[in-house]
Amino acid sequence: MSKKYIIYSLLTLCALFSIIQTGNANSGRNPNIIYICVSDFGKGLLSAYGQRHFTTPNIDALIDNGTSFSNAYGGSITAYARASLLTGYHDCNKNKWRITNGGVYAKGDTSHIYQNENMIDDHKVFLPENDPYLPRIFQKAGYVTAQIGMLGIGNASTRKQMEQYGWDYYYGYLDLVRSQGYYPPFIFENGQMIMIEGNTRADCGRSLVPETEIAYKERWDMEGKKTYSPDLFINKTIEFIREFKEKPFFLMFSTTLPHGPASVPAVHPEAANNDALTQIEKEYASMVKLLDNQVGQIMTELKSLKLEENTLIVFASDNGHDIYYIQEGRMERPYRNTKTRELFDNSYNKYYSDKSGDIFNGNAGMAGLKYSNLEGGIRIPLVFYWKGKIKKRVCEEIVSGYDFLPTIADLLGEKLKTGKDGISILPVLMKGKKLSKDRYIIVGSEEGPVIVTNEGWKLRYYNGKKTYELYNLGKDPKEKYDVILRFPEKAEYLKKILLKECKDDIQNGVIY
User: Fold this and answer.
1) How far is CA 451 from CA 88, 178, 365, in A?
2) Which are the contacts of 281, defined by CB distance < 8 A and separation ≥ 6?
3) How far are the Cα atoms of 346, 403, 470, 482 from residue 448, in angstroms, in the given order?
4) Residue 175 contacts residue 105 (beta carbons within 8 Å)
5) b/e for 251-269, b at 16 or more Cβ within 10 A?
6) pTM for the predicted model, two decimal places
7) Phi, psi at 273, each rounded to 5°
8) pLDDT digits (tens, 9 = 90+) for 82-121
C-alpha cells in the first residue's frame, strides 16, 4: 500500500469521524438562542400552572422538560421591563435609557415618521461602548442578531437606535401604542418602512374597551384589516431560522400576544366550546392559544432542521398579568371587589383574582396586576429549555430579567467591562448551584420600588401612602400580612439598600 494512499485514507477517516461527531452543521459551535418574550402574560395563563379554561401544551412542554423558575421577576410595565432586559440594569436606573412617549408614529401620516424619529434621537440616551447592550454581546461572539415583533427600548424607538443596540435584522413595530392594534398599515424592516397591503386603519385596528355591543361589532368589522401582525411575525421568524441555520444566531421573538386590547382573526375551538366564558373572554383565550401554537411552530421548525439540540430556548413574560376582557358585571375597571363593590387600593384592600372576577386567575392567585409592585404585577413565568444540556427541574432561586445579559456573557465567554445590576445564573442553570441568601433584586413600578431577597423577604415602598411594607414571601406568598413592626431590623437593613438603589423614586416620588 502506497504512502500516498495511507495518508488519503487517514484523511478520509478523520473527515468521517468529524461528520459522526458533529451530526449536523451546528454542532461544535456556540448554541443558537431564541428568547420568546411575551407581553403582559401572567403565570396563571399557563395550564402548567393551573389554567383551567384552556390548555397551553407547547409552552407546558418547555416547562416540563426544562429548568423553570418559580421566583422569576420581570418589570411592572412593558417599556421598563424590556429596557432592563436589553441593558442588564434594573429599572430604577433611569439614567441608562430614556423611556419615550408612545404614539409618536400614529400622529399624522407616514410623511411625519422621519421627523418624529429625529425628535426622539435628539434626546437619546445610549450606553457607552464599553457597556454593551444584549445584542452587542452576541455580535462580538460572532452571532447574527434579530428582533421580531415589538422592537427597541421604551414606548417608541427609532431605526437609528435599533442599529445602535446591535440588531443585524429587525421586523415589527417601533411604537408600543401602535402595537396594541393588530392590523398595522406599516411596520419597519431593517431601516425600511414596509406597507402592509389591505391594512388601512390608522389606529392599526385597535379594539374598543370595555366590551359592549358596539365594541363587539367594531372588533369584528374587518374592513381595512386584512393581515394580522402575529402571522407576519411568526412567518418572518421561521424565515430567519431557515436562512441562518448554518450560523449561530440570537433571535428575540418579541410577540405582541396576548397584549390587548383583545383582537384575534378567529376564535379557537377550545375556547369557542367553553360555555363558562363570555365572548370577549373566548377571544382573549384564543390569543393565548395562538401564542402557544406559534411556540409549537418554532419548536417544530427547529426539530425539522435538526437544530433543537443546539438551540437554547427561553420563554418569559416582560411583566405580570393585565386584564383585556373588561365587561360590566363581570370584570370591571377600575378594579373592584365584585361582592363589596369596593375599589382595590393595593394596600389594605389588595387586588386578588377571586375577588375581582378574573375567571382566568391570570396572576396565579398572587396579589396585584401589571403596574403594581405586588407579586402579581412583577412575577413572571421563566423557563430555559436546551435539549440534552439543561436538566428538567423547578428552581426556587430568585432571578430577574436583567440577569439574562450577564448570563449570556458568561455562556459565550465574553467578559463585561462594566458592572451590570444582573448576575450570571449560568451555574444555576447548568450545575444546579444555589445563589446566596443575601442576593436581592430591585423592581420599580408606578406604586413604588421594591427589593426582594433570595431568602424570601420583600420590602415594598408604596407611593400611595408613602409607607414601607415588609413581607415574608416564604410564609406569605399572597402578601396578606405586613410584618414590618415585627421585624424592624430586617426592614431597616433592606430600606438602606432600596434607598441606595432607588433614591429618586422614593425621595422625589417619581412615578412611571
Assistant:
1) 17, 33, 21
2) 53, 271, 325, 359, 360
3) 12, 21, 14, 16
4) yes
5) bbbbbbbbbbbbbbeebbe
6) 0.93
7) -90, 5
8) 999 999 999 998 789 888 888 888 766 788 888 889 988 8
